[in-house]
Amino acid sequence: MAEIVLDQVSKRYPDGALAVSEVNLTVADGEFIILVGPSGCGKSTTLNMVAGLEDITAGELRIDGERMNERAPKDRDIAMVFQSYALYPHMTVRENMAFPLRLAKVDDGTVRRKVEEAAQVLDLTEHLDRRPSNLSGGQRQRVAMGRAIVRDPKAFLMDEPLSNLDAKLRGQMRTSLSRLQKKLGTTTLYVTHDQTEAMTLGDRIVVLQGGNVQQIGSPQHLYDEPANLFVAGFIGSPSMNFLPVTVENDRLSTPLGSVPLPDRSRTLLSAADAPRELIAGIRPEHFEDAALVEDHLRDKGHTFTGTVDVLESLGSEKYAYFELEGEGPQARQLADLASVTGSADEGGGPRQLIARLSAATRAKEGAELDVWFDPAHILLFDPDSGRNLTRAE
Amino acid sequence: MAATTAPETAAPAAAGGNAMHDARRRLSWSVINLLVVVYALVPVLWIVSLSFKTSDTINDGNFIPRSWTMDNYAEIFSTGIFTRALINSIGIALISTFIAVSLAVMAAYAIARLDFPGKRALIGVSLLIAMFPQISLVTPLFNIERELGLFDTWPGLILPYITFALPLAIYTLSAFFREIPWELEKAAKMDGATPIQAFRRVIVPLAAPGVVTSAILVFIFCWNDFLFAISLTASESARTVPAALAFFTGASQFEDPTGTISAAAVVITIPIVIFVLLFQRRIVAGLTSGAVKG
Predict the structure, then answer these.
(1) Angle B80-113/B204-224 helices, nearest 10 degrees?
(2) pLDDT of residue B249
(3) Gap between the Cα atoms of B232 and B153, Å rounded
(4) Which residue, B70, B86, B84, is CA-closest to B223?
(5) Do the Cβ atoms of B180 and B143 come closer than 8 Å?
(6) Which of A144, A157, A159 lies closest to A86, judged by CA?
(7) Which member of A79, A131, A133 has the closest CB to residue B190?
(8) Residue A33 bridge partners (DSSP)
(9) Which residue on chain A is closest to B206 by alpha carbon?
């Protein structure tokens, strides 16, 4: 149990590349923190710095108030679960899990008891005398967890521990991991590139991009009030729709038509001295088939008509894709996001819009559909800085 | 192959043809294998056969001795020359192997895992040593060792053996170390191991097949060496078996020592055969499977 503090922690490689830039983060005792971001964002480097596997170039790492920068990994009392599990192939499951205790010179009786307790928790009792090579992926993953929990470390560090499992198993392990962490109450730093994992597991999420912290907050907070375009686009699946918009008096001219600017947004915009050309963000679930919206709501919102390009039915809901005319929104952060998500169309040209509709919709591919949305849900971003202008600090 | 493409009615015939084709293939492979084995083993068996022949039947040209005798073996062990040489050989080869492999394990680990200035130079130099014609070094070594008092001593042979065996051992071992996932070492560190503990308890056990392989290679290299053994020794005190064989004489000046030389040759082959048979499984077995997802 421990509080971990990263104070202006930076990492610069000998070749001059800045991998992590001045990260400030306080992980409270027992908290489950997720570091999320695209590959190469510095999240694993940050984790390795906390572990002691990589040197900290600048700044200070404190665990329970003590400076850790110069301590060797073994003196930090932290356990780590690796993406590849890194089980010792020449040892049985029991020996693997006992290894940290043996190194700590714990007596045999205690080792046996602790290993068996951990095996019980992780449902590994009948596999204790097998070797890792004879185990399935999920079992190996649990052995790696077991090796981490046997010695009651101050904190767990997990580097994409579930990414090698198949989708169904990953879902199960996610739940049991969450349960285990609650039960043990151990401070946990968890690295993932999967935003679903981040949303479901963490008490708080740290979004990293290019070595910089973009935003730190609870999953819901990040979802509802992203600090900038990057966070907005990265969190949420399918991701947020971005549209180029222009502020004209009290109205917002969008590719979906002109909509009134909500009062709250207007005050915030004038306070922020915002430019006229902005980028609007609206999540797919804030759209609905106009035919399914009750009348009194329909008047409050805005309805536009579009041709359904592609319709994907997931059973419980449907995703409708619309093609938009004109230029797409231009912003540096969107370009970053595009290079990360691999969508090539962020640069401009015709843009698409995704709407998440109720399964009851009558929408058909190639047919026109009236779509309704509430302008109150529109987030506005500064194209230059990417900052969310509709977010009260 | 043929059966799958043939029409159904012709299938049985095609299957029969297939079986015949298979049999012929197996036969031709067997013949080739047999040829290779015979080519490799006949000289060895010939030596074995010679070692069991009495001195008057040695030149009779029979592959299987007409009259069997253990006299040759009794004779080589009765004189001090061979036993003394055998002790020298075993001692020098084991000590050289031990030192060379211990050094090579550390050097190979450093080459495989660490970045340090001069790494490329080190690899280059060790390759150069491996390529260097040993014959050109014999004279200088002879002079140096005489000056230093190493001539005709165990260290006088152990030192050049280590030098020439190291590159070989470093190369084989660094290949093995490169195969071991780096994360295992990180995991060991996180589990509370010092770098030495991580190396000794995780890396070395995993590299064991490699260590054994290179130990055998180095041992064979030292065991078989004739050039250094003949040039850097002058008496029984450090002469190894390959060199001692050259000094074998018959009971009288006119007696042919072929029988005793053959017996000695058979005796010195035995440790190698035992060594390889003993560790064959370890050499072949890959231990790293299951370490990481793969």
Answers:
(1) 140
(2) 67
(3) 8
(4) B86
(5) no
(6) A144
(7) A79
(8) A189, A204
(9) A90
In the numeric block, the tokens 């195969």 are attached to: B179
State whether ipTM is beyond 0.85.
no
Q: Which residue of B has its CA nearest to A138?
A: B293
Residue of B nearest to A141 (CA): B293
Asked if A74 and B183 come within 8 Å (Cβ–Cβ), the reply is no
pLDDT in the model for residue B255: 65
For A86, nearest residue in chain B (alpha carbons): B184
Sorted by where each starts, the structural domains of chain A and their CATH numbers stand as: 4-229 (3.40.50.300), 231-381 (2.40.50.140)
Inter-chain CB proximity B181 and A84 less than 8 Å: yes
Burial code (b: 16+ CB inside 10 Å, e: under 16) for B163-186 equals: bbbbbbbbbbbbebbebbbebbbb
CB contact under 8 A, A100 and B187: no
SS3 A100: helix
Which residue has 């404190």 as its token pair?
A62
Strand segments (E) across B85-159: none
Q: Do B290 and A87 touch (CB under 8 A)?
A: yes
The answer to whether the CB atoms of B192 and A164 lie below 8 A apart is no
Side-by-side strand order, sheet with A241-248: A257-260, A251-254, A241-248, A277-282, A379-381
CA distance B261 to B248: 7
Condensed to tens digits (0 to 9), the pLDDT of residues B24-59 reads 899 999 999 999 999 999 998 998 998 888 877 877
d(CA B142, CA B178): 38
Contacts of B202 in chain A (CB under 8 A): 88
CB A149 within 8 A of CB A79: yes
Find which of A82, A115, A160, A163 to mutate to test the B interface (most B CBs within 10 Å of its CB).
A82
CB contact under 8 Å between A82 and B186, yes or no, is: yes
Distance CA A123, CA A65 (A): 36
CA-to-CA distance for B34 and A313, rounded, in angstroms? 66
In single-letter form, the type of residue at position B201 comes to R
Among candidates A53, A99, A132 on the partner chain, residue whose Cβ is nearest the Cβ of B191:
A99
pTM, two decimals, is 0.75
Q: What's the pLDDT tens digit per position in A57-71?
A: 999 999 999 999 999
